[in-house]
Design goal:
With 251 residues, the chain is an alpha+beta fold. It is built from 6 helices and 16 strands. The strands form 3 sheets. Strands 1, 4, 5, 6, 7, 8, 9, 10, 11, 12 and 13 form an 11-stranded mixed beta sheet that branches. It has a 3-stranded antiparallel beta sheet with strand order 14-15-16. The chain has a two-stranded antiparallel ribbon with strand order 2-3.
Length: 251
């Protein structure tokens, strides 16, 4: 159910998430997929986890958004955990932890025009500002909170959009530590759009990620342990299958 995999994205790149969750793939009987389609779906994670330790928060944001918008509906959500630590000489002191759950927030299928065909041919993940217009991510000072990607399937221009709301979990400078509350994971985060109409939303809760677990996951002590030994982040409701460990992060 958990693990990592190279994800082939429509911009021509392959990315390996730090952890991922695989949607249960039903047998071709009783489903819409052929055996070939089912095998393709099974080889891709539905929800990806990306951890950035003392790296650019902007790069982490764009990487997470790329998982969602350039996967062709194979990944519905990507959780990014930005962990800012001191240098090795400082003992890798934990300074800040920020998390953001990137969700598929929009999908459009439109007839091609010369301009949209040209745009789709560039295979670019575009940053979208709060005014709805494209921004230059390289010049921006803060991480983006909305990205889009367009591709051409031979008939239509398909445009996928992902967005997030960053959440500060810990800040050493101010003494802030958020250990109460959780991030809700819904069914539409976990099951591929290939089985549902694009934009399908189910408010049924699949599980939740406790803020306290995220803080512990990013703590200095926890960083010394292999990722595979850390506590599972997503907790299922009592009585659900594999309740104790739905997602294990692996190195």
């Amino acid at each position: 159910m958990g693990g990592t995999a190279d994800v082939k994205l429509k911009d021509g790149t392959h990315k390996s998430p730090d952890a991922s969750y695989y949607d249960l793939t039903p047998a071709p009987e009783g489903s819409r997929e052929t055996e070939e389609q089912a095998a393709s779906i099974e080889s891709n994670p539905t929800m990806a986890f990306e951890i950035g330790v003392s790296e650019s928060a902007k790069k982490l944001a764009k990487d997470c958004a790329r998982y969602v918008v350039a996967s062709g509906g194979m990944i519905n959500a990507a959780l990014g955990a930005w962990i800012d630590c001191g240098s090795e000489a400082e003992g890798r002191v934990l300074k800040k932890v920020v998390v953001a759950l990137w969700r598929l927030s929009g999908f459009e299928s439109t007839d091609p025009t010369p301009d949209t065909l040209m745009e789709a041919s560039r295979c670019e993940v575009k940053r979208i500002g709060r005014n709805g217009k494209q921004e230059d991510d390289r010049r921006a000072k803060s991480p983006g909170e909305r990205f889009s990607f367009s591709s051409y399937d031979g008939k239509k221009i398909l445009t996928w959009t992902a967005s997030c709301t960053p959440e500060l979990i810990y800040c050493k400078e101010t003494g802030f530590k958020k250990t109460e509350g959780h991030i809700s994971i819904y069914n539409y985060d976990m099951f591929q759009v290939t089985r549902q109409a694009p934009g399908w939303v189910s408010t049924a809760q699949f599980g939740e990620i406790q803020y306290a677990d995220i803080y512990a996951w990013g703590s200095v002590r926890d960083q010394k342990a292999p990722l595979s030994k850390r506590k599972s982040l997503v907790q299922r409701p009592s009585g659900s299958p594999s309740h104790e460990a739905m997602i294990q992060a692996t190195s």
